[in-house]
Amino acid sequence: MSGHNRWSKIKRQKAAMGATKGKLYSKVVKEITVAARLGGGEPSGNARLRVALAAAREANIPKDTIERAIKKGTGELEGENYEEVTYEGYGPGGVAILVECLTDNRNRTAADMRSTFSAYGGNLGAEGAVAWMFQKKGVISVKPGPSEDQVMEQAIDAGAEDVIMLGDEGSEVRTAAADLHTVAGRLQESGLPLGQQRWVFLPQNTVALDVDTAKKLLKLLDALEENDDVQNVHGNYEIEDAMLDSLLQ
Fold it and tell me: From CA 102, how far away is CA 97, in angstroms rounded?
């Protein structure tokens, strides 16, 4: 498994436990609110809201919390007005980084992003600086259990683009961005044990890092993800599994 995929898995595990659980709740609830504001509170007609609700279920967010977030988005309850902003920059080793944010104060968030990149050996770029290096895709997690052949067969039948095996952590089914829900529905009907469903920005090419650069990059990624306005961080880095294990000890 690539270090990039393993780091993504570790991020999800970290977010589901300990002090970071509150941050995960906040990010998911914020996304539900924005999805409902932009596309309405009915999941059947709002693809973005369906993805957010699936993430809420995976995070075991209480039903009443979810309902309040939807009502804030539709205007039935008073709530903050979040704005979507994507920041682009470079990390140590020239790694391209996309940072997706939801903020109620664009000036504050821009200042935070600039100072964070600078503090950890990177620099914030202009709009369009690195976005061209990524493609938006749908990703569906399949929990451990099914064999590679089983996942591959069902994924092909469902119209997926690719399958990435993650060893004892299961697998990922990748789709065109517009096909995420269609493929997920077909996989669910096939009986595969599905986990998180989401849209991600996948790099078209990756940068292999040495241990010193990887250490600096992971500190930057951690610092970015700790920011309350940050929803997702994407990068075109590649870290060897053994190296990542040693850095996380």
Answer: 17
Domain 3-74: assigned CATH number? 1.10.10.200
**Is 232:200 a contact under the CB 8 Å cutoff?**
yes
- CATH fold of 83-132+204-239, please? Alpha-Beta Plaits (3.30.70)
String of DSSP letters for 54-67: HHHHHTT--HHHHH
Answer whether 139's CB lies under 8 Å from 197's CB. Answer: yes
Q: Cα 141 vs. chain centroid, distance in angstroms?
A: 12
- Cα–Cα distance, 169 to 13 (Å, whole number): 11
Name the nearest CA neighbour of 174 among 188, 189, 163: 163
Q: Is the pLDDT of residue 149 over 80?
A: yes
CATH class of 134-203: alpha beta
Helix/strand/coil for 194: strand
Lowest-confidence pick of 17-21, 50-54, 169-173, 206-210: 17-21
pTM for the model: 0.86
